[in-house]
């Protein structure tokens, strides 16, 4: 797909996506391309700089994605996750079993973290056992 910056004869700017340059030309010739603001079919392509993807450009884009407020929110979430991890027992693969024991009064109530498949998590929730996944934060996967 090719994205074109377009303009109508009334000066409205907008964009359109086409399969190819020929596709735009064909649709414009058949008067299928119209300005969304005024409906004019007199539409032309505007000059565009090519978008070349480079490693440097990708790195710069990644660094600009999160604004200050988002970074602060992520930091607060990270603090919360760290607090949960510090104050819970990591039971690993035994999580569903241990959660059930606590829920049914067979084990002392305490905070748990561990692993459960999607099916196991659904089954726990259907049994009325309150669980929640720990979020995976951006730095956790990079």
Automatic annotation (TrEMBL):
Taxonomic superkingdom: Bacteria
One Pfam family, short name: DUF1178
InterPro entries, sorted: DUF1178
Name of the molecule in the record: DUF1178 family protein
Species: Sinorhizobium mexicanum
């Amino acid at each position: 797909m090719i994205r074109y910056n377009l303009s109508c004869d009334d000066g409205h700017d907008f964009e359109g996506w086409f399969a190819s340059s020929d596709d735009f030309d064909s649709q414009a010739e058949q008067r299928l391309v119209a300005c969304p603001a005024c409906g004019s079919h007199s539409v032309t392509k505007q000059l565009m700089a090519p978008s070349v993807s480079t490693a440097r450009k990708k790195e710069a884009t990644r660094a600009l994605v999160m604004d200050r407020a988002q970074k602060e929110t992520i930091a607060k979430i990270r603090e919360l996750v760290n607090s949960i991890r510090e104050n819970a027992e990591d039971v690993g693969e035994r999580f569903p079993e241990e959660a059930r024991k606590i829920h049914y009064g067979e084990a002392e109530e305490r905070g748990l973290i561990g692993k459960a498949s999607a099916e196991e998590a659904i089954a726990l929730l259907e049994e009325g056992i309150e669980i929640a996944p720990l979020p995976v934060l951006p730095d956790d996967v990079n």
